[in-house]
UniProtKB/TrEMBL annotation:
Residues 296-322 are annotated as: Disordered. It comes from Ruminococcoides intestinale. This is Dockerin type I domain-containing protein. Residues 305-322 have a biased composition (Polar residues). Signal peptide: none annotated. Residues 382-442 form the Dockerin domain. InterPro entries: Dockerin_1_rpt, Dockerin_dom, Dockerin_dom_sf.
Amino acid sequence: MKRLISLAVAVMLITLLGVCRSRAYDEYNLTDLAACSSVKSDSNGKGGFVCAFSGNTVFSARLVPDFSAYNFSVGGRIRSVSQSGNYTYALVFDDAFTNKYSVYSLNLDNGNVSRNTFVDENFMTNSFSVTDNRIYYIKTDSLKSYVACRDFSSDKKSKITFSDNVNEVFNNNGKSYARLCDGSIYKLSQSSSTYVADTGELKNIYNAGINRVINKDGFIVSLSDNSRDYVSNATAENVSVSDGKIYSAVNYRLNLKTSQKTKSVSIPDRATAVVSYKNQCAVLLDNGTVQVFGSGDFEEKKTNGNEGSNDNHNSSKSDIQPNNSEYLFSDGIVYGIYSGETVADFKNKTSAENVYKADGTLTKSGKLKTGFTAVIDSKTYVIAVCGDVTGEGNVNSKDVTLLQKYLCDNAELDGAYLKAADFNLDGKVDNRDLVLISRQKN
């Protein structure tokens, strides 16, 4: 009887009309999604997507080339989500007595939700992938873990084994892959696999565009030819590759790296996710808003003392010229450096010959402070650490107080200390910087 129940449940295909309805978001307002503990991003041949879950609700959005966002709630316990093209999938544990699971599918084009159910037990539910109406997930036998495949149309089951344990199953551009514990990646079919790349042993990976993944060390690995690029000073979750361009968000700056140079644009909050599609890049910010950038937005930005404001507190009237170190250089000052970065970090990213304290003594370790100087390519630059307007190396209430006085014309800031006050790197020092600096805790 149990076997008959399992077979009957396994072949069920239910379109959830009137059972589970999705709800559209307000445009460019993804506060609930951004607040989820784990947001997944995927840039594929259909666009740039983000998805997540919280409680019994799935959240999903396409950010580029157009905007579409929905959420829906389920009756069971959500275990994980996955993106494949325009579809967001959720793996849900329905019933412990029958070991029934559901895979919900959300179409981002129209918000329709459908559902497949199956019965299985003793498998890993933290990762899965759906391709061609087949689900791939990880099971373990007496020897090692392997990939199980189940075809929803026919309920055909198959087993794909490897020389090492399987650590993760994921989807990239509509195809399913398995990553082994030794870092090797295999493309999956219904009953076989093909080796495609190596991302390094015990290195967590994230999707970084079509046929691209990135590991925690910053290496972007191709799933086509195993070639690799490198991006520094960025969290792996906030990197996306499209048409030979590498987009990466670092603190309050979005970088565009090509084979020639790195350009930059400021963003008003930290990034939760970065996705790209052709020549567009979208950033989901921590506050739930979305900003979309085109290639032209990354041209070198000029600031003007009266541009868009009567505020005379401008940090510089010269061009902001990003450099391949991913710091910014202007008027003999190097900035775009955030609190906590060390002398060793700075040397690795700039090839600086020496770093000196404000009093001129050589320093070889410790945190950078505003007012330090560095010799790079035989030129001396003054260091400005974002938010460190007092030159103490931390961002705290003293910096907030000094900046408040400056904005009220009750204190003076100039040079690197004024540049340090421009926390969001938009070329002006104003109340927005004051708010951002007040949020920092060191």
